[in-house]
Amino acid sequence: MTDTAQRILHLLKTRGPQTAQALARRFAISTVAARKQLASLQEDGLVDFAEESVGVGRPRRLWSLTEAGHARFPDAHEHLSLELIEAAREAFGDAGLERMIATRERATLAAYKDALKGCDGPRARVRKLTELRRAEGYMAECRLAGDGWLLVENHCPICAAASVCQGFCRAELDIFQAVLGPEVGVERTEHILAGARRCAYRITPR
C-alpha cells in the first residue's frame, strides 16, 4: 500500500467522509490520482462511497471506511470498556447496569437538547444532530431520502460496549427521537451489530 493510500485511510478515520476532490486538495495531488488511490482501496474492501445531493447537478461521492477499513485502527479502549461493563454488572446486577445506561442517556439527551436550541424545524435539527454525532466519532452524514432524511453512521466508537449490552443502542434510538421531536419518526434501518457495514436511521415527517 502506498504512503498516500495510508494517509487517505487515516484522514477518513479521523475526519470522516471525504470527496475525492477534498482528498486531492489535502494531499496536493490531482483529483485523478486521488480517485485512483480510492479505487485501489475500494478493491481491497477498505473504503466505499455514498452519494449525496448538494443543490443542482450530479450528486457528490463521499468516501468513507468500510468495516475492514475500520479494523485497521483497533480501539485501544475496547478491552477497558468491556471490563468496566462486566464489573458494573457483577457489582450491581443487570438492573444496576440499566440504571447506569439511563444516567448516560439523560446526560446525553440534555447535552443534545442544549446544542439543538435555536434549530428551527426538523431539517435544521437533523443537520445539527449529524454534526454532533460526527464530532463524537461516528463519522455521521445525512442526506435527503424521499420526504425525509437518512442519517448514516459509518463508525461506532461504542461498538464493543454495545455488543455486550444492547441497552446502549436502545438508548441512542430513544435519544434521537426525543431531540428531533414529535414532528418526525425515527427508525433504525441498518445496524452494525446486526452485521451491517454501518448504522442508518430513516427520519420521516409524521
Write a concise keyword list for the protein shown above:
single chain; 206 residues; alpha+beta; four-stranded antiparallel beta sheet; globular
Q: Radius of gyration in whole Å, from Cα? A: 18 Å
* Low-pLDDT segments: none
Q: SSE string, helix = H, strand = E?
A: HHHEEHHHEEHHEE
Strand order of the largest sheet: 3-4-6-5
Shape assignment: globular
- Average of pLDDT: 86
Category from helices, strands and their pairing = alpha+beta
The amount of beta strand, in percent, is 15-25%
Q: Biggest sheet, in brief?
A: 4 strands, antiparallel
- By DSSP, the count of extended strands is 6
- Span between termini: 48 Å
Structure annotation, total helices: 8
Can you describe what's shown?
This protein is of the alpha+beta class. It contains 8 helices and 6 strands; from the N terminus they run H-H-H-E-E-H-H-H-E-E-H-H-E-E. It has a 4-stranded antiparallel beta sheet with strand order 3-4-6-5, covered by helices on one side. The longest helix is centred in the middle third of the chain and has 38 residues, at 78-115.
